[in-house]
């Protein structure tokens, strides 16, 4: 499997922080005969290198020095202390009665280097085994299952709980480095002997116990730990990825409203921004807008039909009320009794044209007779 190595300078007073990256890249490629999967500088100046397998890692360990002109730097390449292992959780009834040594002996052939059974206190106050155990593998990815003697056991990724201070009860540091005063887990006030009359979380300020696992700040920190474990990255990188997905900041780092309210406001704001952006990018009308436009078009069409119907009715009425008058053999007009106007035959459609044609035929026949 993949191996993650650390390259560091052992020359006193020197580091690899300002060494030419092109020079380092050529040295690594010449020793392993290919490009590494990943390489980057760390804060202390050392170089983190990720290679495909153990053989390439062993070749990388042969690098002992680097020449920079007339200067020579001593180099040491070693395995990363934590990134070359991964922890998983197994569960089973048999773990209740086994010891850590027995489980390790049975799983050693499956690249298991450490076993830690999760303990608890029983009703008598004795520490006993639970059905779960944390096992450490000498690999970068956990297997789906392990052979537990008689049967296979499913392996789940182990996500460590967020770090919590035992003094101030806040997340992100330990008691050793805390300078705050001791806090009450129920009301979040300074430690006291009196009975608490209300609940208030130290982390988010809401009305629940500080150690409640449903606390939004605790869940946010747990999500950061999950990203860190799954992607095998640093806490800072995992926190940055989490903030890209959820921009809210815990109340312990702000002086405003509670974290739960800030989270709700942030999600609502993000949702509104996404809807606005979608409308700008995709101007396609919504179903409601389509219905409105459709209704407007239908009404307009109905009004047009009504007007056309009224116009035809008026024309028919006008034609019905007119009386034809004979003028000569060649000319005919239709005089309107109401308006007193005259129209030529082509402007009158339908029945009027038939009437004119009939009168014209009668006039021709009369002239022939005469």
How many strands in all?
14
| Sequence stretches where pLDDT stays below 50 over 5 or more residues | 253-260, 276-284, 318-350
Strand coverage percent: 15-25%
Portion in helices: 25-40%
Q: Describe the global form.
A: extended
Number of distinct helices? 8
Order of strands across the biggest sheet?
Answer: 2-3-1-5-4
* Main sheet: strands, sense, barrel: 5 strands, antiparallel
Order of helices and strands: EHEEHEEEHEEEEEHHHHEEEH
Average pLDDT, rounded to a whole number, is: 76
Give the N-terminus to C-terminus distance in angstroms.
123 Å
Radius of gyration: 44 Å
* SS-based class: alpha+beta
Protein name: Putative ag-outcast-2
Biased composition (Polar residues): 268-277
Region (Disordered): 268-303
Biased composition (Basic and acidic residues): 288-303
Write a structural description.
This protein has 370 residues and is α+β, with helices and mostly antiparallel strands. Among the domains are: 3-79, RRM (RNA recognition motif) domain (Alpha-Beta Plaits, 2-Layer Sandwich); 86-157, Alpha-Beta Plaits; 163-269, no CATH class. 35% of the residues lie in helices and 20% in strands. It contains eight helices and 14 strands. The chain has helices at residues 21-32, 54-60, 100-107, 216-231, 235-245, 259-281, 287-321, 351-369, and strands at residues 3-9, 38-41, 47-51, 65-68, 71-79, 86-91, 112-121, 127-137, 145-147, 152-154, 156-157, 323-326, 332-335, 342-343. Strands 2-3-1-5-4 form a five-stranded antiparallel beta sheet. Helix 4 (216-231) packs across helix 5. The chain is extended, with a radius of gyration of 44 Å. The N and C termini lie far apart (123 Å). The relative contact order is 0.06. The model is unreliable at 253-260, 276-284 and 318-350 (pLDDT under 50).
């Amino acid at each position: 499997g993949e191996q993650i190595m650390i390259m560091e300078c052992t020359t006193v007073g020197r580091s690899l922080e300002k060494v030419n990256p092109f020079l380092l890249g050529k040295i690594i490629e010449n020793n392993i005969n290919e490009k590494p999967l990943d390489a980057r500088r760390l804060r202390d100046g050392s170089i983190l290198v990720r290679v495909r397998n153990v053989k390439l890692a062993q070749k990388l360990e042969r690098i002992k020095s680097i020449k920079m002109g007339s200067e020579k730097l001593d180099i040491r390449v070693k395995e990363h202390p934590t990134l070359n292992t991964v922890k998983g959780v197994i569960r089973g009834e048999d773990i209740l009665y086994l010891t850590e040594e027995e489980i390790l002996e049975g799983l050693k052939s499956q690249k298991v280097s450490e076993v830690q059974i999760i303990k608890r206190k029983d009703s008598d106050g004795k520490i006993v085994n639970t059905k779960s155990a944390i096992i450490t593998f000498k690999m970068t990815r956990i297997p789906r299952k392990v052979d537990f003697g008689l049967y296979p056991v499913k392996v789940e990724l182990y996500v460590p709980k967020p770090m919590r201070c035992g003094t101030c009860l806040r997340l992100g540091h330990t008691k050793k480095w805390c300078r705050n005063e001791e806090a009450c887990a129920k009301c979040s006030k300074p430690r006291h002997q009196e009975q608490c009359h209300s609940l208030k979380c130290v982390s988010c300020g809401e009305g629940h116990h500080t150690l409640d696992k449903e606390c939004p700040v605790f869940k946010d920190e747990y999500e950061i730990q999950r990203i860190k474990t799954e992607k095998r990255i640093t806490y800072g990188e995992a926190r940055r990825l989490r903030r890209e997905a959820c921009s809210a900041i815990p109340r312990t780092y702000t002086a405003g409203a509670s974290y739960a309210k800030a989270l709700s406001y942030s999600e609502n704001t993000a949702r509104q921004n996404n809807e606005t952006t979608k409308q700008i990018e995709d101007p396609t009308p919504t179903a409601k807008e389509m219905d409105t436009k459709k209704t407007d078009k239908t009404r307009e069409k109905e009004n047009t039909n009504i007007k056309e119907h009224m116009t035809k009715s008026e024309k028919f009425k006008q034609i019905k009320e007119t009386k034809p008058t004979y003028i000569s053999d060649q000319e005919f007009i239709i005089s309107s009794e109401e308006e007193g106007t005259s129209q030529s035959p082509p402007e009158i459609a339908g029945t009027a044209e038939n009437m004119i044609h009939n009168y014209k035929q009668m006039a021709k026949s009369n002239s022939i007779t005469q």
